[in-house]
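ingest -> validate -> predict -> emit
validate: passed (alphabet ok, no gaps, 134 aa)
predict: started
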Amino acid sequence: MYEPIRAKSVHTMADPGDFPHRSREEELDIQLAGHLAALLAVTDELRALAPDPALDSAAERLAAQVARLRGGPPVRSAVAAAIHEPHLYALHQRAHALAGRALVVAASRADTGAAILAAQRMEAHARATELVGA
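emit:
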């Protein structure tokens, strides 16, 4: 009288092996690479507005860390400055916040090199914020 069910029910739980999972370490690598890449972008903006050999060195170190985490060189922007000429103070504040986020993730994944770089960038941007804001 009734036709037998030939397909799985839509209410059946999915098999855990049906979709890829990332480990916690892989997720932290992705987060850290993202924070460092964002910090690199802001650093490049600052370099365009106020060239400084210290920022050049920091940009190269950041690019090396991003390349290590992503397995390839980061995409770099060649944009000289935003249309509305962003204020250096705001850029340094943004860079300080990004470095802080990178520091938290680097400490969480026990990446000493990235943590040291992030802490150094936080310190440098805090000093720059004080100088520019004064």
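The helical segments are 24-49, 53-70, 88-108, 112-133.
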